[in-house]
Amino acid sequence: MWAELRELREGRDLGTPPRDGVEVALTIDGVPVKVPSGSSVMLAAAMAGRPIPKLCATDTLEPFGSCRVCLVEVEGRKGYPASCTMLAEEGMAVRTDTDKLRSLRKGVLELYLSDFPGADLEGGWSEFHDTLKQCGVDCHPYGSGANHLASPVDASNPYFLFDPAKCIVCSRCVRACEEIQGTFALTIDGRGFESKVAAGQDQPFFESECVSCGACVLSCPSQALIEKSLFEEEYRHG
Amino acid sequence: MNLQQPQHREGDRSEAVIDLDRLVLMANQIADFFAPYPPLRRHEGIRNHLRTYWDPRMRKALLDHIDHGGEGLNADVVAGANLLKQADTEQKGYYGPPKA
Amino acid sequence: MANPVKPESNVVTTCAYCGVGCGFKAETYKGRVVRMIPWKEGKANHGHGCVKGRFAFDYYNHPDRVRTPMIRRSIDEPWQAVSWETAIQHAASEFRRIQNQYGKRSIGAVSSSRCTNEEIFLVQKLARAVMGNNNIDNCARICHSPTQFGLSATVGWGAASQHFDSILKADVILVVGVNPTEGHPVFGSLMKRRIREGAKLIVIDPRRTELVASPHCRATLHLALRPGTNVAVLDSISHVVVREKLYNEAFVRERCEWPEFENWAALVGDDRYSPDVIGPLAGLDPEDIRRAARLYAGGPNSAIYYGLGVTEHSQGSTGVMCLGNLSLACGMLGREGVGVNPMRGQGNVQGGSCLGSWPHVFSGYRFVTDPEVRGSFERDWGVALDDEPGLRLPNMFDAALTGHFRGMYIMGEDPVQSDPNQKHVIAAMRNMECVVLQDLFLNETAKYAHVFLPGSSSLEKEGTFTNAERRVNRVRKVIEPLAGYQDWEIVVMLMNAMGYPAKYGHAGEILDEIARLSPAYKGMSFPLLERIGSAQWPCDENAPEGTEVLHTVKFPRANGRGTFMLTEYVPTTERTNDQFPLLLTTGRILSQYNVGTQTRRTANSLWHPEDVLEISAEDAAARGIQDGDWVSITSRFGATRLRAILSARVNPGVVYTTFHHAKSKANVLTSDQSDWATNCPEYKVTAVEVVRVQPVVENMAADTAEQPAEEAFA
Predict the structure, then answer these.
(1) Contacting residues of C for B51, CB less than 8 Å apart
(2) Residue C43's closest CA among C62, C63, C23, C29?
(3) pLDDT tens for residues A71-130?
(4) Which residues contact C324 (CB under 8 A, 6 or more apart)?
(5) How far is residue C412's CA from residue C593's CA, in Å, rounded to a whole number?
(6) What is the b/e burial string over A32-58, where b = at least 16 CB atoms within 10 angstroms of the residue's CB?
(7) C39, A10: Cβ pair inside 8 Å?
(8) How far is CA C8 from CA A198, A235, C36, in A?
(9) From B26, which residue of chain C is nearest by alpha-carbon distance?
């Protein structure tokens, strides 16, 4: 797949990696578009100028389908499939922006937001913030329940830190470490609410086999993994 | 104590642009590479290498050393370096990596 | 608050570290560089980076950066800060004085692969057009000069035949004497990806590197040869190819010189290169040599990647020829997925090699002895040029010791730390009357310099780098030069002060001059690179946007055919004996870069605070050495101390260290043995003895390297 990455452009995120294949034609919200077979619906939508909100997908990583934000409707089919894992097919008619989809996305994003430091919503500039804005979500109805705000920050690496409070467990860091760097230093430990990103044998980053290439930091959509050089003062929770 | 002799040797050496032992070593290494080639190509290979890659003062020091008996030099170095004396070689110059 | 500051602007530029040449967006906030983001459109890295380029950029702003020019009459005097004009005038008048006194050829210049193409080109112009001689060399002399020689001799061009992405079509990857996951991490990741996809990997290396055996990568074959036996082993692989008729006869007949193939086949096909003979000599199982040959020749696409483990030997050039011969014989050139590819240690080794920073060739590897080529430069530069090759870097030092070489201009290099047989180099430096050093920091060489010109980091200048896949990438100015001038501007000032009227409005005009005078760069220009991002040479009217794969139709030799060199194995004279029973070999580690001038001034030192000696458990036990003990290492040339760690990565009889810290003094040990063709030093083989010693007291362990020079300044 890497060779097709040469088609990647700085200014846009296709959502899933470009493919090399026979062209198929489909429509996205009525806009006709042609993409190589093997491409995702998400990529087709981006090409058609109808980018679909997303969190766990990015065009440098294989699709994963975990965040449930990129849902779409396909004419003549049931349900609301994730557009990152669904392949574009000849003749498909895809809707990305119906009332039902808007409501589903809002529900999912409100849940993410309920476990994100509220103070950092204002003034933040991550992909997560962009997606919230794209979907018109700026608060959640859940009050203060169980959250990760008190989880300790891992600042062991001299260049970046990991703040679990901002982690949305999208696995982009884990996949970047495997697919791009090939070091396999990161995993998701635990299940459900307990699940968290862990380096090595649940060690501090610096003590794990992490080689500090920064691929995880670059891929993190919510600035849970973030360069220390971007903070003028010592890091503390929001 | 005989100061004359060592002084004389030092004087000889300072004329060579680089230490003569090193020069001899370098030249012999070149001959080692060309050893598997038949004699004419071997000697031309050595000549071409010296002509293309060696500072003229290093070539001169080598030829001077050969004129003084060429102690320590591989016989192929002497044969190859002597080809440098042919007027057309010196004028035309060969350039490039070793030609097979 | 826990929201990061948002960088205010960014500039796309090229990493200054290794030969991968990653594209980065340098982001700034309040005039400082705060972040380096791997550039997704960078064709060498596709948005990936490593711990050096991504994070270790803060050295540019380190308090040790020298920001004013300095001079001194003698190296025993303290430095005096002076104006730029005074420093440049002093350097120029000293160089002219020396030339008047000792002759035109008594001075020379050295450039660095850390500098841009434009700077490297100007420094060779300084030597040739202004100093009036060909005493110009660059640090590729001590790493990849055999590549230029050995590949030119066989396939025609001393450069990688492929682009990096080509490896994704390789079925068999032969890695010889290079450790890409440490030295070229972003390409190392690409290689590991291909291996995970199923490509077979053969590693020829005395040490078990990460590629050989790690949790997510394993070599099909590892030939842990005894250091110094490369040529024997590669010839033995060729022996199997010839004897078992595994070669590609159609390719050789169509694309190569058949009679030379026959000569070569007769040599390597001889019984003396049989695996049964070479195996025991090199410490290998003969069957592994046969397997390697069959695997490589079987392909269908086999690609060779090699590094300094091939070149830094007394037979370095011969070793490179062996790889050229082997790939030609098996038809593994001229398409994607195959090829012979040198991995370059520094960002611009390829550029340094292309652009005439050599005593015998102009840019584009064209010989100074060739009147036609020389004429083209004479017409462009308006001066007569020396028609004789100049001195190579090690020969400059040799000639300094005999008094024939008295002055040197050095840009961005630290030969006292990086060159072999340090005692010899220091004696030579002391013998010179004017050493002008242009650098970011007072390095080891600064101790012996008379003029210090504070240079600019790659974040502070315009230009281009050429990476290991021949890709010319733009280097862009992110911030203003801390000491006032870009490096190329300083060279221009020196040229002018020495009486040569050079004038350039911006660095792009230097690239235009390079393009005008160098066929392979003919189509290169700032506007082209602005438009398409980067281009691989050759770039000309036939390939206006550059060339990814070389040799697809013919080889760049006079008759268009590849040829075979006779690569007889000649053992090095650097051998073990009772007194020095172990072989020391050297390498790199991920977090540090070369002599560490940059990375040691960043947090990267947390990963690698000191060089250590890797020794096998057997050799350690025989000497009463425990893990973590301090040991002395003694060679025929000197001695140093390191901490020892017991390692399964090296075989008994071999010890290994890195060379990133000045205090380790690795080059006190190394010999003055060098490659027969290029004088590239034999760093990879030094006979040593290792003895356990008392722990070094703490203040000796501190990095004392640069302190004396700095104290002298204070």
Answers:
(1) 369
(2) C23
(3) 999 999 999 999 999 999 999 999 999 999 999 999 999 999 999 998 888 888 999 999
(4) C150, C151, C153, C154, C155, C340, C562, C565
(5) 14
(6) ebebbebbbbbbbbbbbebbbbbbbbb
(7) yes
(8) 32, 20, 13
(9) C676
